[in-house]
Structures are given as C-alpha cells and as structure tokens.
Amino acid sequence: MSTSYFNTPGMVTVPKEITPQVEALLDRLQVDYDPELIPVQPEAYSQPDACYDNVAEKVKRDGGKLHYGWAVWQSKHIIEAEHYAVWEHANGDLVDVSPNRLEATTIMFIPDDQPINNDLMAIPNVRVNISGSKLIDDFILLSETVDKIYGLSIYTDEDKLWLPESVLATVDTLNQYRLGAEQLYMSGGKAEGPCYCGSKKTYKACHGRGIKLLTEDIVKRAQMVVRQEWMNRQQA
Fold first, then answer.
1. How many domains does the chain have?
2. Domain of 89?
3. CB atoms within 10 A of CB 25
4. What span, in angstroms and rounded, lies between the C-alpha atoms of 17 and 89?
5. What is the 8-class DSSP label of residue 4?
6. Residues 136 and 102 in one domain
7. Claim to verify: residue 137 and residue 185 sit in the same structural domain
8. DSSP, res 218
9. Which residues, listed in sequence order, are joined to residue 39 by a DSSP beta bridge?
C-alpha cells in the first residue's frame, strides 16, 4: 500500500545506469548488492501491483526461487525504491514476471537479502529528493506519513486489510497536501512563494507550516484511533 510514484503517471522512468542519483538512493538503502537491469516478462496470470503473489505463483508452476529486492523508479525530482520481488531461474538469472504501468521491458533491480519485518502490512518506499526543493522534501515527508498510516492496517477474519473510516479520511487529506506540494513544484512554485491553496500566504507559512510536527502528531493519533476502534470492533 505504499504511495508510489505511479500516482503521477507520465513522470516516471527506469534508470539505465548507476548515476549520482542512484548512488544517493543506494546510500539510503544500505544494501550489499549493486543494481542490475533485468528483463520484464509478465506471465498471463500476473497482476499489476502484486509482485509477491506473481512470483509465488511462478515458483509454484515452474520452480526456481523468489528473490527480494528493490525496483528503482525516477522522475525529475525524486528517485524512489519500491520493495519488490522477482523470479530467480535455476541458473541464477533474474526475471521480473510482473507487469508495470510504464510498460517497461527492463527494470533496475537492487537485490536485498535482509529479513523482512512481517509486522508491517507494507514495506514503505524509500525516496530521495533530487530536486533540492523544500516542496519535494515536504512531498516525501507526507508520502512517508501515508505509508506509516497504511502500515497500521489490520487483517480481518475475512483476510482483508482494515483501517477506520476516520483514519482513511486523514489519508485522503494527506494525499491532497502532498500532491498540492508536488503540483506547486511542477508549476515552478517555491516554498517562499504563494501557497497552492490560493491563500495570500506563502506556502511555508500556510500548508507547509510545521509540517514535520503535524505529521508526527497525525501518526500518533492514527495509532490510538486504530487501537481503540479495533478493540471496540472485537467487543461488538
């Protein structure tokens, strides 16, 4: 459920080589392996945004192994790593068996054999600001906050993910804030310029004001609401 760059189609590319931007992402990831370009060969049964399930089905049908790592996506202002699974052939070759919305025929994949924290409903994307803009710093912070809230999701008896409606409404608001910051940047705006909401204030004095403390408070409140409403649901 992490908030991917695919929410803004047409802006995303696949890096083809190790650039300074890719190096900056590697520094954040702290992995032991170098990126590699691997072919994308989706199976007929593969579904978008379901790489773990797609690879598990491939292993079940054709053998081989599931190989965890990170897929790398880039725009002009962010480079982003999405936790990802690909299929490993018996000969060691890696293949991406999942379709992607870019219709890319290769992806940049960074192998990572670190254990997965099974307490997380979704592993958050890792993002690096390559624009130098404060607006994109805020976009990343807001995106990470949405990821944290989705990570509070609980599996129900029906094997579905659940969050209270009030928490989902908060996610909608955060998404409006983060996309507002991104669109302001894309239109040439700056944190010191007019806010995207149309107020007469600057962005940093309006929607960008105190955003770090705000997002920290939102996550704490969401944790309490999820805990309380889940208890109420169980007792009903």
1. 2
2. 5-111
3. 27
4. 24
5. -
6. no
7. yes
8. H
9. 106
Which residues share a beta bridge with 50?
none
Number of neighbouring beta carbons within 10 Å of residue 75: 18
Say if residue 92 is in the same domain as residue 178: no
Residues 12 and 77 in one domain: yes
Indicate the pTM of the whole model.
Answer: 0.86
Whether residue 229 is contained in a domain is answered as yes
Task: Indicate if 97 and 140 belong to the same structural domain.
Answer: no
pLDDT by 10s per residue, the chain, length 236: 444 544 444 478 999 999 999 999 999 999 989 999 999 999 999 999 899 999 999 999 999 999 999 999 999 899 999 999 999 999 999 999 999 988 899 999 999 987 665 555 568 899 999 999 999 999 999 999 999 999 899 888 777 889 999 999 999 999 999 999 999 999 999 999 999 999 999 999 999 999 999 999 999 999 999 999 999 988 87
Distance (Å, rounded) from C-alpha 198 to C-alpha 202?
10
User: Looking at the structure, do residues 101 and 159 belong to the same domain, yes or no?
Assistant: no
Cα Rg, the chain, nearest whole Å: 19
Q: Residue 219: inside a domain, yes or no? A: yes
